[in-house]
Write a structure and sequence with these properties.
The chain is mainly alpha-helical. It has a domain of 133 residues. Helices cover 74% and strands 0% of the residues. It contains ten helices and no strands. Helix 5 runs antiparallel to helix 9 and helix 8 runs antiparallel to helix 9. The termini are far apart.
Length: 195
């Protein structure tokens, strides 16, 4: 039932943005008016669930990808995957991001989910500076989540177009990684900062 309601929400977001009512959502999903409330609590809950769906898709694709061993390359691959997911339905994803940025009675768990994605990308931190690897694996998942969300906020607001999203997301990830990488990755990361 949850997936049916979320699928309907995505269809409505494609048609009219986030302006749909819960009654319209119930009608689109072919369920009773109470069902979306029972499943998600509120429209904000639906948007959080759509965000969770996106992050789950990113994590699934990351798990299926043939990833390099080095953490920097893995994170950059995760950036490409995350950007691709967001650009598959940019209108829907901008509406979801806009809703997530609004005050809500119940905080979601977007940060925890996003940090989980970046922790998976970092894996065991191969190639990170050995002196700070443990610290990096502790702090970088959140920092990468903050960096990606920051770039998404400018994209959501229309300050970055779809083409710039990937470049800016790579740059933001590179900036977060910079203090924790070994010498062999510095040249690659510095190039990304200049994109």
């Amino acid at each position: 039932m949850r997936e049916r309601v979320l699928d309907a929400a995505e269809r409505l977001l494609t048609q009219d943005g986030a302006a749909f009512s819960m009654r319209e959502l119930a009608d689109e999903a072919g369920v009773s008016f109470a069902t979306p409330f029972n499943q998600f609590g509120s429209k904000a809950g639906i948007m959080q669930a759509l965000s969770a769906r996106r992050i789950a898709s990113m994590r699934e694709r990351l798990a299926q990808a043939a990833l390099p061993a080095r953490a920097v390359s893995r994170v950059l691959a995760a950036v490409e995957i995350a950007v691709a997911v967001m650009l598959e339905a940019p209108g829907v994803n901008r509406a979801v991001m806009g809703a997530l940025g609004a005050p809500s009675d119940a905080p979601g768990d977007v940060l925890a989910r996003s940090s989980g994605l970046w922790a998976e990308a970092l894996a065991d931190g191969k190639g990170l500076a050995s002196a700070t690897r443990i610290r990096a694996l502790s702090v970088l998942p959140d920092q990468l989540a903050f960096a990606f969300r920051g770039v998404l906020s400018f994209w959501t607001a229309g300050e970055l177009d779809d083409e710039m999203l990937g470049r800016r997301a790579r740059s933001a990830a590179a900036a977060a990684l910079l203090g924790f990488i070994g010498r062999e990755d510095r040249a690659e990361v510095f190039v990304l900062l200049e994109e």
